[in-house]
Design goal:
single chain, about 140 residues, mainly alpha, 4 helices, elongated
Length: about 140
């Protein structure tokens, strides 16, 4: 059969034997018997590619679940050992992205961060100026 070491005495597997050995593998991928035996030979390529894509998607989903669990456990354990409420870790504020951001989305996010930072600077500057005026008046 396929995968066996051929010796001088052993016969190489026949094409039928190879197909019979591979049939359950493709059936596990969702291919029907009639598609495997009577369908277009390219179907096995498509089923194998689709199976690999599904496996990659499952792997990515499981990895994301691990990241969420790590964040959740880290939040709980970190909260248990925090000395005050300011030291307590926070759970993720938003979910992990499912796709890469477009250039427009990246630019909009940068602009929003810049706007928040500018507003923070203005508030701090106003607070500083008010404190300075009080010190000069007092």
């Amino acid at each position: 059969m396929v995968g066996e070491v051929l010796t001088e005495e052993s016969e190489p597997p026949t094409t039928t034997q190879i197909f019979e050995e591979q049939c359950p593998y493709y059936m596990a991928m969702g291919m029907s018997l009639s598609e495997f035996w009577d369908g277009d030979p390219m179907l096995v390529v498509y089923y194998r590619k689709a199976f690999q894509i599904r496996q990659d998607m499952i792997n990515a989903w499981e990895w994301r679940m691990g990241v969420y669990n790590l964040s959740a456990f880290g939040t709980v354990i970190g909260s248990m050992f925090a000395k005050n409420k300011n030291d307590m870790p926070e759970y993720m504020k938003e979910p992990l992205p499912l796709r890469e951001k477009t250039e427009e989305e990246k630019q909009a996010e940068i602009q929003a961060q810049n706007d928040r930072f500018a507003a923070l600077l203005e508030r701090n500057m106003a607070r500083f100026n008010a404190t300075k005026e009080q010190a000069n008046d007092g």
